[in-house]
Amino acid sequence: MKRMLPAAVATLALWGCGDSNHAIVNDSREVMDASQQSVIASRAMGLVASSDASEKFVTRTVFVDDTGAEHVRFDRTLGGLRVLGGDVVVHNRGAGLASDVTWASDVSLKGLSTKPVLDAAAATTYAEKAFVGKRSGPSSAELMVDARPDLKPAVSYEVVLEGVRPDGTPSELHVLVDARTGELRGSWEGVETTAAVGTGKSINSGTVSIGTNTISGGYEMRDVTRGNGFYTMNYATGLVFTDADNVWGNGATSDAASSGVDAHYGQQVTYDYYKNVHNRNGIDNAGNTGYSRVHYGTKYNNAFWQDSCFCMTYGDGDGTTFRPLTALDVAGHEMSHGVTSRTAGLVYSGESGGLNEATSDIFGSMVEFYANNANDPGDYLIGEVIYTPTKAGDALRYMYKPNTDGSSANCWSSTVGSLDVHYSSGVANHFFYLLAEGSAGNPVSPTCNGLAVAGIGRDAAAKIWYRALTVYMTSSTNYKAARTATLNAAKDLYGNPSTQYTAVGAAWTAVSVN
Hints:
Elements: E1 2-5, H1 7-14, E2 23-24, E3 30-31, H2 34-44, E4 55-64, E5 70-78, E6 81-84, E7 88-92, E8 99-103, H3 120-127, E9 134-146, E10 154-164, E11 170-178, E12 184-189, E13 191-193, E14 213-215, E15 218-220, E16 222-223, E17 230-234, E18 239-240, E19 242-243, H4 256-278, E20 291-296, E21 303-306, E22 311-315, H5 328-342, H6 350-371, E23 381-382, E24 397-398, H7 421-424, H8 426-437, H9 458-472, H10 479-494, H11 499-509
Parallel strand pairs: 6-9, 17-20, 20-22
Antiparallel strand pairs: 1-8, 2-3, 4-5, 5-6, 5-7, 7-8, 9-10, 10-11, 11-12, 13-21, 14-15, 15-19, 16-17, 17-18, 21-22, 23-24
Helix pairs in contact: 1-2, 4-5, 5-6, 6-8, 6-9, 8-9, 8-11, 9-10, 10-11
């Protein structure tokens, strides 16, 4: 959702002069404190503040892009409670230029009571009904306001339940419980996977160079040259890999370090891709890239990103369908979940969850192309090298024709949001392939409207998607809003009219997002 603001008003909403309690941001401008932002931003943005003046907007981040435009993310609160679906991005184009706002949800919260009927313990009991698997570890319950689009706002608890899913994947299930009625309002996973159900992955990157660290008596698998550094550990031992001569693994599963090499290599290539292509310093843009863990579980057919540990974890596969899941595109996929978490924060359910997964598939593929590794050349298949020889030719997902896997959606429909997020991602994956390669690419990609689409190249397509993610998308962006976000990104980068802007619109129309 977007609203236009006069340039002068937008500037007032974000910056002031001569006031105390200012914070200094990365471009040396001063940002108003929360109380000032609350009054000015709520009026300038056209929101109706609550009658007790308890509704506020607090700056989360200020991002200055390469055009000099400033994009400020605000978090919305009501009575001191976090508002899910309340985040907004104000885009300040500069003196004399109109500014606009991207909303997660602009629903009015006027008159909404923030007083719960249930306590946290009761909410947790309701939430546990949604957990599938074995519960273990602690739980937490935060009182907040659920104001996501298409729902009636309600004071709710966000309950986080830890445990293990039936297939062995760790679970951090987030469940929203109405704090007055106990109704379950939705849920999503905090552990985001590649969804290789019943299968696994392995890396086949050949002999590569990896960053290591000298220690007493040898070396450890720790890169200290990229950002704030990262390391790779053996989950089975809980220790960082070490070696006496700085020659790691033997290219086979008989040496535990071989999978470690693949994970470590995938992490450094992913860091390099984001740094060199998008000028992003690590997953969080502050130099942090997390760490990797290999040899998780027994014959475990999956890999996952976990935001709470800021880390990637890889299984070894069952040896029948999958080998170790440490493929280049899988590494890029998992770490891109972290990028999404630190930017748009796309909620991992419904259409926003499909866009979350598609973002990881898109950048996982771009990492694979960037690596230019002859042993695992770039393509628009996800996880194709993790299959055993008996399954050669299979892939987890096919971006040029998503329904090849039998479950993913080629085209948008009103029911897409009800699919598993790994399958609803097909719409955005298909869009990206058409935008980058066109319908006559190799392989050919059929469109949903039967019309031909010309590609603009994967570099331009990736830059448009990255800008849309980091500047325009919010936690509850759906496919219609993603179309708007990418059109805005294309306009910023290439202008309107431009070949790239026109191609974005055509590619979305080709997957039935109008």
